[in-house]
Amino acid sequence: SLSLSLPRSMHLFMVHVVKYLNVQTGISIIRVSRDYTKILLSVLALLTKLNDVNCSVRVLHLGGTIRSCQRFLITHNRKALLRCLESAQSPAEKGKLVELIASLDSAAVKED
Predict the structure, then answer these.
(1) Beta-strand relationship, 49-50 and 27-32
(2) Which DSSP symbol is given to 3?
(3) 58-96, pLDDT tens digit by residue?
(4) Taking Cα atoms as reference points, which of 79, 69, 63, 71 lies closest to residue 111?
(5) Is the CB of residue 48 less than 8 Å from the CB of residue 8?
(6) How does DSSP assign 49-92, residue by residue?
(7) Considering only CA atoms, which of 50, 57, 97, 96 is closest in space to residue 78?
(8) DSSP-derived secondary structure for 4-49
């Protein structure tokens, strides 16, 4: 699990919850009270290590709801798969990527 080390006083006022974490892609959705969004963004920008492992954090999207973040991730993943499809060499790779893109498209349709 992902845990951020924050000052104890901040824990009293700020609720941060990792709602989604994909270890393979390194993408996560973190829920935080709107009042503390800027503080969390500052903390993430300064974060250089987690559990003695070097890391860097890039904010891909800032949304008002978990659902808007999920929609963004579907679009983001679809674009990444399309880029992979362009560079795929074998027909088997291309077929697998086309299946993954179709599954993302059907997930987007189910949400609406």
Answers:
(1) unpaired
(2) -
(3) 899 999 998 999 999 888 888 888 888 888 888 888 888
(4) 71
(5) no
(6) EETTEE---------SSHHHHHHHHHHHHHHHHHHHHHH--SHH
(7) 97
(8) ----HHHHHH--EEEEEEETTTTEEEEEE-GGGHHHHHHHHHH--E
Q: Which residues contact 100 (CB under 8 A, 6 or more apart)?
A: 81
Total residue length of the chain: 112
* 28, 22 Cβ separation under 8 angstroms: yes
Residue 64: name the closest of 22, 39, 31 by CA. 31
Nearest to 86 by CA among 98, 77, 76, 75: 98
Question: Beta strand 53-54 with 16-22: parallel, antiparallel or unpaired?
Answer: unpaired
pTM over 0.85: no
